[in-house]
């Protein structure tokens, strides 16, 4: 990294953010990270800044003296889709404004593959709108569109591991997706922050685990079953069944529901495979964790932590 200037990180308390801070500790990279609540934890190289994306003075403190900003924070799931715009678009606008106020130029923005198809979900639309703000910002930006991110601490794909333990896994209709292990994604975000500008400036990258063509839904279900040491029977459900499942999940788990109608909107799209022509340059980053290895590591972590 550039000297001893810290990285400014939003979303440091989340799933991807925690993996990133694990790596910055290992690399002895100083970090200033935003948190809603005063926090003290094992990340010895992290200085926590109390505030959120609506708190402009806190964003100023977050970015003071930083070398670059890694903007991870955002809303990925909610029973009220109207919240996506405020969290992901207005929040990003506030980050951009704070960067300009502090004279910071380098931004790594974490978007989503769902931004490719903004008409399918309000989440995807909010990420696409945020990308447009970033592109028009005049900053030195790089956009990263991760596919399905999994690994230790993840509570979303955990649902699939739990289903694999039972042996029956409900799936969307036929299609394929890419995946990426959270540590590989965190490593990419850190490496991009200080990469040669000619290789990464004003580019959009779609990383994955290196598997050409991604994983069909059935292949991924079977692989998760193998990681769990169990035989899985995939059950592909039509749109109507998934929408019914979303309504039932809302009734059973309320605001904690994982399957929402907005998620069904993009889950049923047949192609969430990362594009080969949007891979990060090999000189900057390559995936280290294959899908098979990462799924096994994740299953082992869930068992160790008592999740399964």
Summarize the structure in words.
The protein is of the alpha/beta class and 308 residues long. It has a domain at 7-153 and 179-209 and 274-289: Rossmann fold. 41% of the residues lie in helices and 17% in strands. The chain is built from 11 helices and 14 strands. A 7-stranded parallel β-sheet has the order 3-2-1-4-5-6-11, with helices on both faces. It has a 3-stranded mixed β-sheet with strand order 12-9-14. A two-stranded parallel sheet has the order 7-10. α4 (122-135) links the parallel β5 and β6 (140-144). α1 (15-26) packs across α6 (182-193), α2 (56-63) packs across α3 and α8 crosses α11 (291-304). The radius of gyration is 19 Å and the shape is globular. The N and C termini lie far apart (38 Å).
Task: Give a topology summary.
Blueprint: E1 7-10, H1 15-26, E2 31-35, E3 46-50, H2 56-63, E4 68-71, H3 83-102, E5 106-110, H4 122-135, E6 140-144, E7 148-150, H5 158-166, E8 168-171, E9 176-177, E10 179-181, H6 182-193, H7 197-200, E11 203-205, E12 215-216, H8 217-228, E13 233-236, H9 239-253, H10 261-267, E14 271-272, H11 291-304
Parallel strand pairs: 1-2, 1-4, 2-3, 4-5, 5-6, 6-11, 7-10, 8-13, 9-14
Antiparallel strand pairs: 9-12
Helix pairs in contact: 1-6, 2-3, 3-4, 5-8, 8-11
Summarize this, please?
The chain is of the alpha/beta class and 308 residues long. The protein has a domain at 7-153 and 179-209 and 274-289: NAD(P)-binding Rossmann-like Domain (Rossmann fold), CATH 3.40.50. It has helices spanning 15-26, 56-63, 83-102, 122-135, 158-166, 182-193, 197-200, 217-228, 239-253, 261-267, 291-304, and strands at 7-10, 31-35, 46-50, 68-71, 106-110, 140-144, 148-150, 168-171, 176-177, 179-181, 203-205, 215-216, 233-236, 271-272.
């Amino acid at each position: 990294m550039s000297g001893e200037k810290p990285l400014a990180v939003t979303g440091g308390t989340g799933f991807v953010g925690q993996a990133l801070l694990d790596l910055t500790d290992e690399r002895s990279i100083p970090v200033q990270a935003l948190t809603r609540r005063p926090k003290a934890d094992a990340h010895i190289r992290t200085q926590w800044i109390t505030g959120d994306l609506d708190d402009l003075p806190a964003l100023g403190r977050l970015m003071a003296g930083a070398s670059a900003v890694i903007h991870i924070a955002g809303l990925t799931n909610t029973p009220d889709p109207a919240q996506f715009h405020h969290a992901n678009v207005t929040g990003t606008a506030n980050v951009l404004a704070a960067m300009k106020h502090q004279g910071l130029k380098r931004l790594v923005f974490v978007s989503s593959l769902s931004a490719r198809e903004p008409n399918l979900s309000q989440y995807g639309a909010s990420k696409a709108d945020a990308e447009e703000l970033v592109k028009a910002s005049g900053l030195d930006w790089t956009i990263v569109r991760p596919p399905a991110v999994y690994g230790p601490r993840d509570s979303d794909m955990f649902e699939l591991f739990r289903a694999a333990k039972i042996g029956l896994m409900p799936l969307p209709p036929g299609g394929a997706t890419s995946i990426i292990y959270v540590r590989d994604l965190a490593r990419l975000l850190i490496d991009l922050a200080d990469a040669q500008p000619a290789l990464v400036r004003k580019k959009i990258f779609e990383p994955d685990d290196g598997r050409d063509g991604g994983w069909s839904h059935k292949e991924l279900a079977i692989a998760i079953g193998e990681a769990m040491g169990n035989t899985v029977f995939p059950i592909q459900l039509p749109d109507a069944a998934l929408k019914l499942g979303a309504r039932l999940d809302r009734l059973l788990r309320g605001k904690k529901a994982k399957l929402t109608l907005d998620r069904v909107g993009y889950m049923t799209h047949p192609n969430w495979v990362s594009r080969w022509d949007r891979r990060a340059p090999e000189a900057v980053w390559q995936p280290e964790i294959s899908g098979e290895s990462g799924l096994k590591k994740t299953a082992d972590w869930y068992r160790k932590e008592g999740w399964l």
